[in-house]
Amino acid sequence: MYARIRWAFALVTLALGACGGADQTTYELSGNISGLAGAGLMLSDGNGHELTVPSGATSFTFPTPAAAGTAYNISVTQQPGGSPKQACSIENPSGTLTSNSSSAAVHCVGPFVYVSTVNGVSGFVMNASTGALTQMAGSPFQAGAGVPSLLVHPSLHFAYGPNPVSGGIYAWEISSGSGVLEPIAGSPFDTSADPYNLTIDSTGRFLYAVGYGTGVITAYTIDPTTGALTQIAGSPYPVETCPPCYTLVSTLTIDPSGKYAYLANYESYPGSTILGYAIDGTTGALQPLSGSPYPVPGMSASRLVIDPSGKFLFTVGDTGADVFTIDGSTGVLSLVPGSPFPAGAFPAGDSLSIHPNGKFLYLFCPSGPSRFSTHYQVIVDSIDPSSGVLTPVPGSPFAYDGGAPVAFNFSADEKFAYSYTGNTYSQDLDGFSIDPDTGAIVLVATYNGGWASALDPSKKFLYVSSNVLSGAGTIVAYAIDPDTHALTPIAHSF
Q1: pLDDT > 90 fraction of the chain, expressed in percent and rounded
Q2: Which of 191, 273, 301, 405 has the fewest CB atoms inside 10 Å of its own CB, making it the most exposed?
Q3: Those residues with Cβ within 8 angstroms of residue 18's Cβ, 6 or more apart along the chain or in another chain
Q4: CA distance 431 to 445
């Protein structure tokens, strides 16, 4: 009915114009949109009106009508700044209103995909509809002898990569129009120890670098405008005064509240420990928690995982799975009675995963007596929401005739998970069906894999990189079927 009324009004005004009155016809400026996946896009019509466009929109309409013949000049006043980060441009931005539609069209590209290699950082623009990748101009972006990992700032405006060879942290600004990485003034920023793993707090104000094999933590403030790093007073922080203390490839883990940080201290003797720190909310400085370091039964604890509620911290050593409660007011860790919980012989700590619903723990361990076994099984435990106690779910351990996978990437509906076995025996990418109510897990598919994998923010596409250490790596892209979770290779991979 609304359409009929609007057209009736137009006919009346045209009739009045024929009798000598002014043409009073008005139109709403509109056009088409392609590729928009992010949130926060804002458009201007050049006449003082702005429009916020929701994510996923395929068209736009300025709600304020304008008289026929009004000139317009559409522009992007704000790019999509949420996740995923995109860049949008206008085709045929200018013209005059002659109807409710125009020839103007908004085209959005991105999000952006980055892969760290020994040759630097390779950058790609992702088609949000198909998942296909297009290499950015100037890629790969130089980073000395290369960076083992890349960390993107929560604002999506900056990226950082550690270089344990040169001892610096490379920093880039992410161009909002193209995703191209532009070096930040002062990069690479010096550290007091060879940085290997980086962590940024949830507010995006502080960055922490853990030294390769030394455990020395260097802390920085992040300039919100430029992304530049400034070392915090009192930094760097030594882990312990004990020989030997190893924190090889360990990462500082921050709890969901952002108030506490923990670091696994991989010691060969007398055993593993966990370092705990309180984070000063104003300065970012670290203060050791009461009772830190906290002993971990057994040895080899390296990966730390905190459940979504922030109540429990999990790690894995040679003797099983260890669980700690986190005091919400002090951050102090207390070992849960019963730790270490059985997790088979020589469990693979890098495979430790917590289901997004916080109910289940997943861990792979050899099906044979040797830590060098090429065949593994899956340990699945339910997590008591009050105590953190682990109890095997019915059917655990579950059969899995594969190598040692790493932590899961969970699907959007949390009923499927992907993991790769990036070891010397295989580089398979495995897909598992998961019952979110019981925790039961079944291997349903195996694909060509690699050394690392990641889901895009929409969880519609999965990307797998291989041979990145040789500098001649490849990226294989898969589209994820939303119903079956099956993976279909995307034609243009690298």
Answers
A1: 35
A2: 273
A3: none
A4: 5
- The pLDDT assigned to 239 comes to 62
* Rounded CA separation 118/115 (Å): 10
Closest to 276 (Cα-Cα) out of 335, 318, 195, 338: 335
How remote is the C-alpha of 434 from its chain's centroid?
22
DSSP string, 309-342: TSSEEEEEETTEEEEEEE-TTT--EEEPTTPSBP
Question: Count H helices, E strands: the chain?
Answer: 1, 45
128-148: per-residue pLDDT in tens?
778 888 888 888 888 876 777
What per-residue string of b and e applies to 440-473 under the rule 16 or more CB within 10 Å gives b?
A: bbebeeebebbbbbebbbbebbbbbbbebeeeeb
Cα radius of gyration (the chain) = 27
Other C-beta atoms within 10 Å of 25: how many? Answer: 19
**Phi/psi-derived region of residue 349, left when phi > 0, alpha when psi is between -120 and 50, beta in every other case:** alpha
Phi, psi of 47 (to 5 degrees): -125, 25
Q: Where are the domains of the chain?
A: 2-109, 342-412+430-440
- Report the alpha-carbon distance of residue 80 to residue 444 in Å, rounded: 37
| Residue 125: closest CA among 143, 108, 142 | 108
d(CA 437, CA 434): 9
- The CATH architecture annotation of domain 2-109 reads Sandwich (2.60)
Instruction: Pick the closest to residue 36 from 73, 75, 72, 79 (CA basis).
Output: 79
CA angle at 153 for the pair 240 and 421, rounded to the nearest 5°: 70
Pairing of strands 30-34, 105-109: parallel
Judging by beta carbons within 10 Å of its beta carbon (0-12, 13-18, 19+), is residue 374 exposed, middle or buried? middle
pTM score of the predicted model: 0.79
Going by the DSSP 8-state scheme, the letter that residue 257 receives in this structure is T
* Cα–Cα–Cα angle for 253, 257, 262, rounded to 5 degrees: 25
Q: Predicted confidence band at 472 (pLDDT cuts at 50, 70, 90)? A: very low
How would you write 236-252 as a 3-class SS string? CECCCCCCCCECCCCCC
Tell me which residue of 287, 194, 202 sits closest to 247, measured CA to CA: 194
- Give the SS3 label for residue 420: strand
